[in-house]
Amino acid sequence: MDRLEALVQDTLAERAGQAPTGPLPLAERSRRPGRTMAILAGSLVVIAIAAVMLTLVLRAPDRTHPSTPASTPTAEQDLPEGMRTASYGSVSLTVPAGLATRTSLCGSPAANEVVVFAAATDFCTTVADSLAPHPGTVVWLSIVQQTTPYANIPTSPVDIDGYPGTRGYATNAQGLGTGVSGVIRLSQQNIVIGVTAPSRRDVDLLLSSIRIAQQDPLGCAANLSAASTTPPGPSNVLVPGEPTAAVRCEYGNGTTSGLLVGSYLLDPTQTDQLTTALNALVPDPCHCVHGGTAAPGHDEVLYLRYGSGNILRVNGAIGANLDTYTNQTRTVANYSSSITHLLAELTNQH
Which of 15, 177, 190, 291 is the most buried (most CB within 10 A)? Predict the structure, then answer.
């Protein structure tokens, strides 16, 4: 009804602007009832025309953007400048936007990054117990079965969003980097959140932002099976029109199969880059026998938002040698993994 209301308001405002102000002359007063009726009749005609136009608009399908349920992620969040959301399952917290996300424990000790258990580590030497000597800021999110540098920090009870947990601190402890380290353990969520930073104030700033919910601040569901759906997209192109923003929800494999391991907000420029790359893909470029089955691999849910407020969901299945993406109507594939590389670049992930 917004268009109808706006049209009616504009019409009435225009009619009001044409009406005389102040006392009417005696000659005009005798003609006022007839003029009032004429103005009212004209307004009713305009309103009737507007109602017909609105009916036609509502009946006409939106061929550019799919309609979207109100519960779908909207690619908006209210965060302090220079901060972003880091998520793991149902747990999220606010971290500096410049911190890269690391999804593997292979390679060098963790430093100046957000570390999550999202990639298989069977084929590399892990560094699960190592933080760099001067870490700057490290956020370590882990399911409790994994060994973490924060395992031996003593804790005491704490309540977070109505859920029980424990919280503790250590300074320059063995196995931790220089500075202050804090840890929160959430037994019901099966997650440990460890933070190492230069000062206790820095640690508390991050730990105090922890939230527990089935959707994180960007709208990513804690589990892939609960991810919000949208109507299917068109068959001729994967991403129609020009979306203005996007949310990337990444879900793990292996021990974190189907669990949210990261969520990222893309700005208009990044969204345009991603849209161009996705629309350049074609169905099954290699004619692979497995048809793009993601095994082993992980899943992506991309929500692309349009200026109209509508949102399109694109699913990504990241496989061993073929990545597939679908808008629930059109399915395309990528043999070179360039899209996953682009996504990693756009979301500062390594």
Answer: 177
